[in-house]
Write a structure and sequence with these properties.
This protein has about 200 residues and is an alpha/beta fold. Helices cover about 60% and strands about 10% of the residues. The protein folds into two domains: about 90 residues, Response regulator (Rossmann fold); about 80 residues. The strands form two sheets. The chain has a four-stranded parallel sheet with strand order 2-1-3-6, with helices on both faces.
């Protein structure tokens, strides 16, 4: 059921619309622009469409469009220039909800998907590059044991990682000790130059 606000000094439009066959309409009639603006102040009923005559006792044409556009910004406004049947058909178009376009996929999902594909491609490329490097190394060194060369490479990588972690832990420990010593020194300075036992 379409909720329609009708602005007309006499109930001619409302009577004509009610006589026409079709879906029931929830009509509210007012005789002036001022009454329509007062209706906006009341809670509850809100029109889905506004039907107005071109000339009202307190406004006409552009004045009506401006005032109703501010009072009911998202509500379509029709001026009664045709017969009741044509007006009813136009008002019925507001009863059917507009089809919504499909929601776009969030950009984050697309980025995750692309990152996953890139990771797979990077892994494949790295595996291929390592395999080719091992083959070249074996040919260069004149070795026949491919698995032995791979194990040697793994051991070398593990050694490098362990060495980096060791030095990282040592530097972190030294930095922490230095910060503690600096803090104790600052506290001693604040307390008047006396060191606590």
């Amino acid at each position: 059921m379409v909720r329609v606000l009708i602005l007309e000094p006499t109930p001619r439009l409302a009577t004509g619309l009610l006589r026409e066959p079709g879906e029931p309409l929830d009509l509210r009639g007012v005789a002036s622009l001022a009454e329509a603006l007062l209706l906006r102040e009341r809670p509850g009923w809100r029109p889905q469409a506004i039907l107005s005559e071109l000339t009202l006792p307190d406004g006409e044409g552009a004045e009506i469009v401006d005032a109703l556009g501010q009072a009911f910004p998202a509500t379509p406004l029709l001026f009664a220039t045709g017969e009741a049947g044509q007006l009813r058909r136009q008002l019925q178009t507001f009863a059917a909800p507009l089809p919504r376009p499909p929601a776009p996929r969030p950009l984050v999902d697309e980025q995750r998907e692309l990152l996953g594909e890139l990771e797979i491609l990077a892994r494949r490329a790295a595996e291929r590059a390592v395999s080719q490097a091992v083959d070249r190394l074996m040919v260069r060194l004149g070795l026949d044991d491919e698995q032995g060369v791979k194990n040697a490479i793994r051991l070398a990588r593990a050694y490098e990682n362990a060495r980096e972690r060791f030095w990282s832990a040592v530097t972190s420990g030294l930095a922490s000790g230095l910060l503690i010593a600096l803090g104790v020194g600052l506290i001693a300075l604040v307390k008047g130059g006396q060191l606590a036992p």
